Amino acid sequence: MAEDPTENKHRGNFAANARLRRRYRAERRFRLYCMSALILAVSFLVVFFADMISTGYSAFTQAEIRVEVTYNEDTVAVPQRAVADDVQPFVSRGVLRGLPREVEDHPDWMGTTRTQWVLATAAVDQYLSGNTSALTGERAQRVHELEESGRVRAVFNHWLFTQGDSKLPEMSGLKSALVGSLYVLTITLAFAFPVGVLTAIYLEEFAPDNRFTQTIEININNLAAVPSILFGLLGLAIFINFFGVPRSSALAGGLTLGLMTLPVIIITTRTALRAVPDAIREGALAVGATRWQTVRDHVLPVSLPGILTGTIIGLAQAMGETAPLLLIGMIAYIPDAPASFTDAATVLPAQIFTWAGMPEHAYVERTAGAILVLLSVLILLNAAAVYLRRRFERRW
Amino acid sequence: MSGYHRPFRLQGLRSDVDTGTAIFLFLAGAAALAYSAFHIGRRWAVGVQGQGVVTHSRPHQYGWYLVAWVLLPAGAVGFVGALLRITAWIRFTELAIVGSALAAAGAGFWLGHRLLKPELRARRTLEAIMRRLLLAAALVSILTTSGIVLSILFESIRFFQLVSFLEFITGTDWAPDTAFTGASGGAEPHFGSVPLFAGTFMITLIAMLVALPVGLLSAIYMAEYASRRVREVAKPVLEVLAGIPTVVYGFFAALTVAPLVVDIAGALGLDASYNSALAAGLVMGIMIIPFISSLSDDVINSVPDALREGSYALGTTRSETIRQIVLPAALPGIISAFLLAVSRALGETMIVVMAAGLRPNLTWNPLEDMTTVTVRIVAALTGDQAFDSAATLSAFALGLILFIVTLTLNLVSVILVRRFRQKYA
């Protein structure tokens, strides 16, 4: 606040000076506590991101191994024989299992031996990434030699985005979860956006100020604070058990998350509508527009950026939500992307939950990798919301 | 509704289209009818005006008037039909529902077209319809709340018909699963929820011990000490903590924090579980920080400067003013933030599912594994028990208590904030 009072020597009141010094020390101490609290909070965030990135970055590379694959009747029957015995333990079982299908797709390969880069096992991948690996002793030495001779390499892990879930860590990807999230969010948006915006318009532009309106308002504010898991109970009891929506489907998930997102959209839309000055409404009404025409042609267009911002934030919340979806069965093992809204589906956070529970160590980096994918999507959504607000929001 | 076959379905009535196709047919038919109705209505008005007659409304409003006559009957018939089919009172096929809905649309069009005349106040009718539509949307939120309340309440009542309420509230033994003991016929399932609430309470307490000091002191720093630039950066950065999905926090807790807790406890000569309440509580506390800091920051900022200046004028230091003037003034708001945060912690699911234990454990030791209400809700509903079993229904009873507690906390919090605002606004 002021200059240091201990400089104040021309008054000989030592007791008072000592007290002042104490008070100023207390002041500095308090300020230090506050500052360290903030630094602590921010450092939590830094530690968290550093942890996720250092665990997850290696999920974006995947080990490949160059082997000679023999295609003939014998190897189609017993795919393990297609590759030499000394490298066979390092080749993903998924590759060998897919061999008969490959021959079906390329009949001319029959009877040939082709040198190919194929997917290596998760153990090899973990060894290359420097993580704890199941490879020990002789086998680790062998992989080391293969790497030296250029027969093992790490490439960008496109499987993470082109494969569905799998019981083999090296074959499991996020495709089905990403498609599932897209389906679920489509339903959420299709339900929550129109209902939310219409509700907000009613409350802000049409509703008389009476008990009934106040009840609705209190209701909406409470809904926003209800724990998300209770929406899962609602979805289970109403959508699945009463209306017979298929369990685990994107439809059930989307509707449940839609109800959860509704209050967010209503509250932000109301804020956006309230920011429109009354002069605009009065101008429209003065030239003979009806209430609805005023809202549709004048109030809504200028408040649209605010409404969209709120909607995106609500969707980002829904995208990261897991708890209610667990209750309606969206943690099933889904290897293939859903083809319709009523197919069993899973979503990105649910896939993270499933992988986090897998015993194989190779799933740890995959889980962290999936988390990085999810966080990137969320950051993009929020950045879009911030951009919309900065770019289009008008102030009166 | 595919995969929803009732056993007594009449073979002759089986429709050969699935629900998706039926919905598509309905939407396509209704859209085509509405489109033509709009143009017919508008053209009628333009034609009438061409003869020099003055109409009450603009031509396109007569078009929309006819659209309403098409869509409202179609929607009503389709909705009622779907509802009857779902509740299985009458077994309509899906094609029959779509057909009758579109027939109703046609009839509506015919009726609406007969009503068209120049003095018809189409604009007024449209306005009334829009107002009703908006009101109907607003009612969805009421329906959602009552849906939550009713669904939880009904299933809870079924649960309490099987298990006594007194045992549920006071029992200290939670053992819903009889799979291992059922054959011997000796052991009965127990539904004493005390250990679950004790675990929830313990983890919430740990979370608040982290979040309250860190959140509140950060808020004080941002509101009272920090420069504008620090504030503009720090506030959104803290908000990021609230935006991270809880499943991610759960993974962080299980992967990083829990082993850390075990190591540190081991170094101190203590024995910690890998599912310790401490790890889950710490991470939950980190997640809760922004809920406290953000609301407290707002409240501290809205304490009038006159109070601060009056205090400075008496010669106090900043921290003395904060502690003796600003914080007491902001207390209702801070308590309200605290209550909201507690309600958030009580209902938090993923962190505890992934990092806290499944074992009901009545203990004061935060290094042991404990389970919470939300964990048991998830466990009850992701198992393969029959839906009618007491074990499954117990999830709804737990949900009911959770709902009542969080609702109370939220309401008290809202009332406190309102009091605060009335005092200083």
Q: What's the mean pLDDT score of chain B? A: 86
* Inertia-based shape of chain A: extended
Structural class by sheet pairing and helices of chain A: mainly alpha
Instruction: Provide mean pLDDT of chain A, rounded.
Output: 87
What's the Cα radius of gyration of chain B? 31 Å
Number of strands of chain A: 3
**Number of helix segments of chain A?**
16
Alpha plus pi helix count of chain B: 14
* Shape designation of chain B: flat
Distance between the termini of chain A: 37 Å
Given as residue ranges, the uncertain stretches of chain B (5+ residues, pLDDT < 50) are: 1-15, 180-184
List keywords for this structure.
heterodimer, A: 396 residues, mainly alpha, 64% helix, B: 425 residues, 2 strands, 74% helix, 1% strand
Task: Give an overview of the whole structure.
- The complex is a heterodimer of chains A (396) and B (425).
- Chain A is mainly alpha-helical.
- Chain A has 16 helices and three strands.
- Chain A has helices spanning 14-56, 73-77, 93-97, 99-105, 122-129, 137-148, 159-162, 175-206, 211-225, 228-242, 250-274, 278-286, 291-320, 323-327, 348-356, 362-392; strands at residues 61-70, 113-119, 152-156.
- A three-stranded antiparallel beta sheet of chain A has the order 2-1-3.
- The longest helix of chain A has 43 residues, at 14-56.
- Chain B has a two-stranded antiparallel ribbon.
- In chain B, helix 7 crosses helix 9 (277-301).
- The longest helix of chain B is centred in the middle third of the chain and has 41 residues, at 122-162.
- Chain B is flat, with a radius of gyration of 31 Å.
- Chain B starts with 18 loop residues before the first helix and ends with a helix.
- Mean pLDDT of chain B is 86; it is low at 1-15 and 180-184.
- Chains A and B meet through helix 1, helix 8, helix 9, helix 10 and helix 11 of A and helix 4, helix 6, helix 7, helix 8 and helix 9 of B.
